[in-house]
Specification:
25% of the residues lie in helices and 29% in strands. The protein is of the alpha+beta class and 651 residues long. The longest helix has 41 residues. The relative contact order is 0.09. The N terminus is likely disordered. One of its GO terms (cellular component) is endosome.
């Protein structure tokens, strides 16, 4: 089919469309003005059906070579944009290929000839046509092809989802015990869980591509350019939030503790009853994890990607024989590094000391290489302990006490002249699950107060836990406050042998001194890379100068590099661990962690999972009953050691 078309009375061109190939050719009519030369105007055949087109376009390569002519081919059937060095090399392998499914085609605002093709992989072709009409034709053809193949991707997902539903219905429709197969057959549970995880992953990938496409379309309309849009995974990748903060009732006021501080707690908790902790647990054998694999598979097959696990009852055998409140205490297992923060000779050194303490605290907080889940604390549950920190060899000047202890109460100094660091944690909320913990060393004029909301979500073959909240370290001797956030935690490979990984960015800031730090816990990439990597930078905000850099592994060796080129290595596995001091169960209150969970813990030690589950259910049901009663009587829950403090921010 050949016909002639005139545009704006300038140039007449003929367009030939081959019926067999759907190929479009444009050539100028003989004897017409402007019928020669690359810059002549062209007439184009516009339609909304897919066409295989080809022709020369200029492609931007780099700053050195700039723009170069290349021969481009739009392959509609395969959904590919291919290019060759020239038309003569077309029989050869393409120089480059860009898949168009999910791509974004964007005309440029720079001029009327340029446009970009942004593939879902992040690769981009920046192209330039001869004129505006030629650009419009390429853009419209590419957009039609892109839309077709993007919709085809969605249709494939729909078909896959239907097949997945058929599979699940077939498995669940099997008779319970008749025949060679049953719904609880381990291989079928593995198939069911794998199918669910695969569909969840594909759905999430498709959602990411759709978000990227929308973002790039917005940027093509003059909005800000978005280089990469992170997956819409749960909010577990972000620390902080609008949650009310919690501060101790013994919080700071005018440079000292309120009347009700931990010094008053010493009246309730007799320090003489505390003994060095003898509670040690060997790492669970891998066999125990494998034995319960069918239970995990059955649980995973019921979960959906991104599901909030806060209200999901997880199997008892994955518990690690300690409460979450006690786990927070175990992050203080290097109390000597904690109390040494205030010894820094200047604000820079104190910030570096805080970063060192922070980075070394996570290794001992984890018990063993296998990822286990601490008990979810019951609302009102508390945990108390202390540490005796040996004094350094040099004489220490006497510092004024935070407040004078009541007559007859124990002093803050230990029997052998050591410092005493006291700790209390309390579960202050059930929904959402919020914990508060506080530690102080009155003799060193320092304390730390933190609130954490643990928000867990299912991520396919992993479980992610966001530690949403904030902590504040107070150095009263220097009138400094260090605010800090917490990283996210992940339980990886939950179908085999689960292991723990930390990820996310942590911010540390001291407003008075003008020093800050950014700590980045790096998760392992899919291919290559090391486990448990962490980096940190300590910066002077006023000059933007980096005074110290840290790199290494949070459970291995850390290297500190300073401005003067000095370096220092810290091996966290060789740091001395100070055991906490805890009162025996029979001297603890009924809502203190170890006494509260003692029957569950003992049953797990005896590997009696059924009995442990029974005791755990009793505690959880009691909590639900009490919560219903408070709701019916409109009685608000009253915390014991912490109080809610609504944070107001100026607009």
């Amino acid at each position: 089919i050949t016909f002639t078309m005139t545009m704006q009375g300038e140039t007449a061109s003929a367009i030939r469309i081959s019926d067999s190939e759907g190929k479009l050719d444009v050539f100028p009519q003989k004897g017409m003005p402007g019928s020669s030369g690359r810059g002549s105007s062209k007439g184009w055949q516009y339609s909304d059906h897919m066409e295989n087109i080809d022709g020369c376009l200029m492609k931007y390569t780099n700053l050195v070579t700039g723009w170069q002519y290349r021969f481009f081919v739009l392959n509609n059937e395969a959904g590919l944009l291919e290019y060759f060095v020239n038309e003569q090399s077309r029989p050869q392998k393409p120089r480059g290929t860009l898949p168009l499914a999910g791509a974004v085609i964007s005309p440029s605002d720079e001029d009327s000839h340029t446009f970009t093709v942004n593939a879902i992989s992040g690769e981009q072709y920046k192209l330039r046509a001869t004129d505006a009409k030629e650009r419009q034709h390429w853009v419209s053809r590419l957009q039609i092809c892109t839309q077709h193949h993007t919709e085809a991707m969605g249709k494939m997902m729909t078909q896959a989802q239907a097949q997945h539903r058929d599979l699940i219905q077939t498995i669940e429709g099997l008779p319970p015990a008749a025949g060679p197969l049953s719904p609880l057959d381990q291989d079928l549970l593995m198939l069911k869980a794998t199918s669910m995880a695969t569909m969840n992953c594909l759905n999430d990938c498709l959602h990411i591509l759709q978000l990227q496409q929308v973002a790039r379309q917005k940027s093509s309309l003059g909005g800000p350019t978005i280089e990469w849009l992170e997956p819409k995974l749960p909010d577990i990748l972000k620390n902080g939030g609008p949650l009310d903060s919690f501060s101790t009732e013994g919080g700071l006021l005018e440079g000292g503790l309120l009347e009700r501080g931990l010094l008053e707690l010493s009246e309730e908790i007799d320090g003489e009853d505390e003994v060095e902790d003898a509670f040690t647990e060997k790492e669970e054998e891998l066999v125990a994890v494998e034995e319960e694999r069918s239970v995990v598979l059955h649980l995973l097959s019921q979960l959906k990607l991104g599901m909030d696990l806060t209200r999901v009852v997880l199997p008892t055998f994955i518990l690690e024989k300690r409460s979450l409140l006690e786990m927070y205490a175990d992050f203080m297992s290097h109390p000597d590094l904690f109390v040494a923060i205030t010894d820094g000779q200047g604000p820079e050194e104190r910030m570096v000391c805080f970063v060192e303490y922070y980075l070394t605290s996570f290794h001992e907080g984890r018990k063993g290489a296998i990822a286990k889940k601490p008990y979810n604390p019951i609302i009102g549950e508390s945990f108390h302990c202390s540490w005796k920190v040996p004094r350094s060899g040099e004489p220490t000047k006497d510092a004024p006490s935070l407040s004078s202890p009541p007559q007859g109460s124990p002093t803050t100094e230990g029997e052998n002249g050591s410092y005493q660091l006291r700790f209390v944690a309390e579960q202050v909320s059930h929904h959402p699950p919020v914990s508060g913990f506080y530690a102080e060393c009155p003799e060193r004029q320092m304390c730390v107060n933190t609130h954490v909301w643990t928000k867990s979500k299912f991520m396919g073959m992993s479980i992610g836990v966001s530690m949403i909240g904030e902590g504040c370290l107070y150095l009263l001797e220097h009138d400094e406050e260090y605010t800090f956030t917490l990283p996210c935690a992940y339980a990886r490979s939950i179908l085999t042998v689960p292991w723990v990984e930390l990820g996310g960015k942590v911010n540390v800031n001291c407003t008075k001194s003008g020093y800050s730090a950014v700590i980045t816990f790096q998760t392992k990439p899919f291919y290559g890379g090391k486990l448990h990597k962490v980096t940190a930078e300590v910066k002077h905000n006023a000059t933007n100068a980096v005074v110290c850099r840290v790199q290494g592994e949070w459970n291995g060796v850390l290297e500190f590099s300073y401005q003067n080129s000095d370096t220092r290595m810290v091996d966290v596995t060789k740091l001395p661990v100070t055991k906490k001091r805890v009162r025996p169960n029979d001297k603890q209150g009924p809502t203190e962690s170890r006494r509260l969970w003692q029957h569950v813990t003992e049953s797990l030690r005896q590997k009696d999972i059924e009995k442990a589950t029974e005791y755990k259910s009793i505690l959880e049901e009691r909590q639900r009953t009490e919560e219903r009663h408070r709701t019916e009587t409109e009685t608000p829950w009253r915390t014991r050691y912490f109080e809610s403090e609504v944070r107001r921010t100026s607009s």
